[in-house]
Amino acid sequence: QVQLGESGGGLVQAGGSLRLSCAASGFSLDYYDIAWFRQAPGKEREGVSCIASSDGSAKYADSVKGRFIISRDNSMNSAYLQMNGLKPANPGVYYCAAGFMTCRENRRGLESHEYESWGQGTQVTIAP
User: What is the pLDDT of residues 9-52, one digit of tens each?
Assistant: First the structure.
């Protein structure tokens, strides 16, 4: 069974950091591009960052550039999102997703319809 599982969410003060993890089971992430999405209450799911399987190149939403870092470790069949300088606008449920060649130069990479496999999400809450 193909599954993605997120972990690492929690409560953090504004300005703090969290590292989210996304572990795959039932399939290998080696050939999949991975993305992180965020969904705040009452809002649509929005793309935060993605990383390509081919060369590790990454894309970021403008709102997180310079603060968030996406990475992957194929030997661990996992991907990560290091979130620094968290802001009150950053809380929500964070999801990881896997897609085939979705985070490439000729693709937007941060649109949910591009991804076929999703995790259950992990909650991130920011304390003022």
Answer: 999 999 999 999 999 999 999 999 999 999 998 999 999 999 99
Residue 127: its H or E element: strand 122-127
Q: Give pLDDT tens digits for 81-103.
A: 999 999 988 889 999 999 999 99
Place 128 in a pLDDT band, splitting at 50, 70 and 90: confident
Count how many Cα atoms sit within 13 Å of the Cα of residue 58 in the half-sphere of its side chain: 21
Distance CA 59, CA 104 (A): 9
DSSP 67-89: TEEEEEEGGGTEEEEEE-S--TT
Report the SS3 class of residue 53: coil
Residue 2: CA count within 13 A, CB half-sphere: 10
**Sign of the CA dihedral 110, 112, 113, 119?**
positive
3-class DSSP assignment, residue 114: helix
Decide if 108 contacts 114 (C-beta within 8 A). yes
